[in-house]
Amino acid sequence: MLSVYDVYSFKIRRGGYVYEFCGEISNIISNLTMLKELSWIDGQTRAILIQFSMYNANVNLFIFVTLMVEFLPTGGIFPQAKFEAINLLVKYTSEYGMFQFICFIIYMLFVVYYTIIEIRLLIQLKWTYFKRFWSYIEWGIIICSWTALGIYIARALEQRRIETYFKQNTYINLHKAFYIHDLLIDLIAFCAFFSTIKLLCLLQVNHRISILSRTLEMAAKDLILFGSMFSVIFVAFLCLFFLLFSTALFECSSTLRTAQMLFEMMLLKFDVSDLVNVHPTIGPLVFSLYIVFVVFIIINMFISIINDKFKVVKHDPIYQIADNDIIKYMVKKFRLWTGKFMYK
């Protein structure tokens, strides 16, 4: 039986039969001949997956290849291929490996420190803590970091399991290792995302960055209402383009591709000739409606909301930051980092 992670990328239900090829090429050819004589592939076959692993010792790189042929109910054949590369056998005895390990330890020490700080703030501020936007950013970084630590340990255990197979002349299934590695990369990506947003909080001492953050804060309610209105209009055009052109254009073959096409239209990076070729009248008509309603009206409304709030923040002395306020802010943050500051 194929496991879930074996067929995860191809979206096939769990099930099937596995035949392992090993040995010399002559043995493999004879095994293929035997499977053909036994009608291993028949009319009930849904798909065939061929998986094999390769290892390049010069660059310490694993490559896992999955070739798939899907037999469609209409009688056609749909081939797919996926190539995945990963560096699993990381040696911390080398200079780069030791540097990577030291950076990892320092990062986790910072995560432990900020976890304690956030727990203290949660206890002190209680329900007020959840009204702060940056609290969710902090916990996003903390949760992703601790989860990434667990996935990192799981990858190390999987790495040790793979190392034991090197002593044996057997097939090494790397699907689980690649699945764990992909999870780790995704968590690192979210950590980088939240950390980049956190950088805006640290740069609020800058006058222009402070105006930007305060402008977005003032326009938050209006932007939420605008987002709901934009979502309704966008979904309406999504249904319109999908139902009209799903059978004629590849860009409209699915709702996700249709949404991507509409965003390209919003950026004026779409070739309208495809719509004209499908239907000379309806194609340009719906394209013009989308440009008028979304690009000319909706986008200008968004710019107007931001522009109005920006004028208020820029000319209101309450939102201006003086040099003394910056110094006080820096002293306040320093006392917070040293653990000598308590929120009231």
UniProtKB/TrEMBL annotation:
Q: Which UniProt keywords apply?
A: Glycoprotein, Membrane, Transmembrane, Transmembrane helix
* Domain (Polycystin) ranges: 13-88
Q: How does it sit in the membrane?
A: Multi-pass membrane protein
Domain Polycystin cation channel PKD1/PKD2, residue spans = 92-313
Q: Which residues cross the membrane?
A: 59-78, 98-116, 136-157, 177-203, 223-245, 285-306
InterPro entries given for it? PKD1_2_channel, PKD_2, Polycystin, Polycystin_dom
Name where it mostly resides. membrane
Recorded hits in Pfam families, A to Z, give:
PKD_channel (PF08016), Polycystin_dom (PF20519)
According to its record, what are the GO cellular component terms? membrane
Localization recorded for this chain is:
Membrane
> What are the recorded Gene Ontology BP terms?
detection of mechanical stimulus
Q: Which GO terms describe its molecular function?
A: calcium channel activity; calcium ion binding
Family as reported in the entry's similarity comment: Belongs to the polycystin family.
PANTHER family the record matches: LOCATION OF VULVA DEFECTIVE 1, POLYCYSTIN FAMILY MEMBER
Name of the protein described by the UniProt record: Polycystin cation channel PKD1/PKD2 domain-containing protein
What's the source species for this entry? Didymodactylos carnosus
Phylogenetic classification of the source organism = Eukaryota, Metazoa, Spiralia, Gnathifera, Rotifera
